[in-house]
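Running low. Any example?
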Amino acid sequence: MLSARNLWRDPDRANAAGITNLDVAASSATGINGGQVTVLHEGDKQIPVVTRLRMEERAQLADVQDLYVYSTQGPQKAPLRQVSSVDHEMQTETIRRRNQFRTITVGCMPEAGHLPSEVMNAIRPQLTAFGNQLPPGYQMQIGGSEEEQVKGFKNLVVVLLISVSAIFLSLVYQFKNAIKPFVVFAAVPYGIVGGLTALWIMGTPFGFMAFLGIISLVGLIVSHIIVLFDFFEEKHAAGELLKEAVLDAGIMRLRPVLITVLALVIALVPLALRGGPLWEPMCYAQMGGMLCATFITLLLVPVIYSIFVLDLKLIKWEAAGAPSGENALPENTADQETVAVRLDTKPDEVRLYDRFARK
């Protein structure tokens, strides 16, 4: 039960004074809550101007009854206590429910320049300790921006999985190989670690925008690795040796990759410095992730590609001039061996003599 105070209009006295219910409600509400008089325009902002009683003049309900009620239909006015009365009674409080459970909600708003995640990180230990002390049948849940952030994370994870699957299928179609896309994704975890490290160094909380920046790193890193892979494929098609192709790729693709990364990082610097708490996490995550992934792309990806070719034998690499088909010499067997002798008898004629000897 809740003790309530009701303001009742006396119809006989109010009608005699020319005061309506609307006049009584407007005067009492303006005195306590205030009423908007005008709007102040300052730049691109609109600031409402509200008039109401001073705190000491509206501290008690009896003070509000000293207000004068002005009629909206004429010049009549009367003290509020003359046309109304106040009584006290016990009322049942409104039962609020959340997810079908009776709920008591305690809320707050962060100060300017601070994020809700910062407030939650500071108060979370106390909230956890309070939740552990609740009796059986009671539970504590955190709503507001953190609840929406968790829902947003789940949706972004689904989007990330769909995007990675689409990128993987497109790479399989492009390279005509199911192994090469795994080499393309090799630098993505290092970029994510670089983004998280940048957030930790700058002291920026990991929120929705930071997670969005981490997700966007996947596409950026993959695009840079594809530039390197495209060079591998060109040299492979030209018949160049693996070692020379890997070294040439690191040298020839160094400038375009660095130019792209530095352009991205420099463009994000103003937004990171002046973007406020909303944009800073995303900028720092992208800047740190791209700088880390760039070195991994140029140094580690060629090494991983060489391991897949030379050690794991999962990617085939055949250089030009390798013996194959009819130009290859017959292999030695246990029953016979072949000795090939090439004699140049004429400039335009080559005769090949084969001598077979059994063991």
In short: Residues 322-359 have pLDDT under 50 and may be disordered. The chain has twelve helices and ten strands.
